[in-house]
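Anyone have tokens for Glycosyltransferase family 4 protein? Sequence:
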Amino acid sequence: MITQAKNIEVSKTQEDQLSLEPTRVNDDLTFNGQNLKIAQIAAPWFSVPPRDYGGTEAVISNLSEELVNQGHHVTLFASGDSKTRGELKSYIETSLSMQKIPWTNYLEAEYHMINSFREIAHNPHKYDIVHTHLSSASDLIILKLTAQIAVPHICTIHSNFPFDRRENHLGEGDKYYFHWAKDTPLIAISDRAKENMMRDSQLPLNIIGVIPHGLPDNHFVQGEISPQKNLVWIGRIVREKGTKYAIEAAIKAKRKIIIAGIVDNYLPAHIDYFYQEVLPLIEANPDCAEYIGPVSNEEKIELLKSSYCFLNPIQWEEPFGLVMIEAMACGCPVISFNRGAAKELIKPGINGDFAASVDEMVAKIESVGNNIDRKQMVKDTWNNYSVKTMAKRYVLKYQEVINFYQNLGYSQSIQTKSL
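Reply: yep, here.
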């Protein structure tokens, strides 16, 4: 059974203690505490790390492995085909995407989540903190479950909150999710994501920090970088990612673009976008566009470091854009529409540039590809987006949350009651 902590009265002063200023790049990242026992909970849609596509799962893997490197004990709750040097606990043998289970079938994912939280509730002394990760509307049960455990917890929001529910799912039941969310210490992944969350939420949210993603050392290329003339686009092929516009830019620039990524075969709108708009454009222009399907992390690195520019004509308020820093870490500059967190990641003339249209993107390809110091770009990306720095920022937030709840008397010794 899942247990619930007794209600604790929190004064306004105590609430303010957890409304901490965002952890940013130049903060003191010194941690003087003991090694922590950390539960990382991932939804079972993709393995951790992912086989090909899965930005959230890649971040969870990078963070978990680096926390182990730094001496912490990590228990990863994820699908059974996941891999970690920490301890793996699984309630779903194979990731749901590999089983071709559609996003609308929540039951399997909820089974994994409920059992994960049941394990934590039954063994609270095994965990100093629980770190959950929320990236889609299909996993909103996480907010309900974290509200019911007597262990300090924190949640990273990996997408826009409340996701696409703002447009087509906002209903009577959402007020409960907002209620649970406002009592959960939340981490945003960019300043822009934080702004959007605060604007769109029906209730004030407890966002205690902004922590950008980080990449492991093996993602940063070493030595000489010798790009070819081809352009590249990598991601999930959906309208919001602007795949079609990247191809149109390549055609107008008379350059070849390599398209790598997965086709989302679970939602009709995404299927139609690929087969009616993207694929016909590729087939009609074989000299300018090639679709190679999904790629592994190793293949992605090779593709990026050999490409002239990464085109990113995004059509939505992307909360971060992991593939952009992946490209920069491989010495591949990024030309992007100025949406979402792109303005926080791209420094014109240093690691890429912005374009307001496909035509402007075409006009900037030559100058961006020729004039940027690719080796310096890799170095700058490592300085700002190393997984070591990301992990240290999270550990500081873990300790702040743990200390906050201990000061309230919210500890593992609290009497609990069954739901």
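Residues 387-407 form the longest helix (21 residues).
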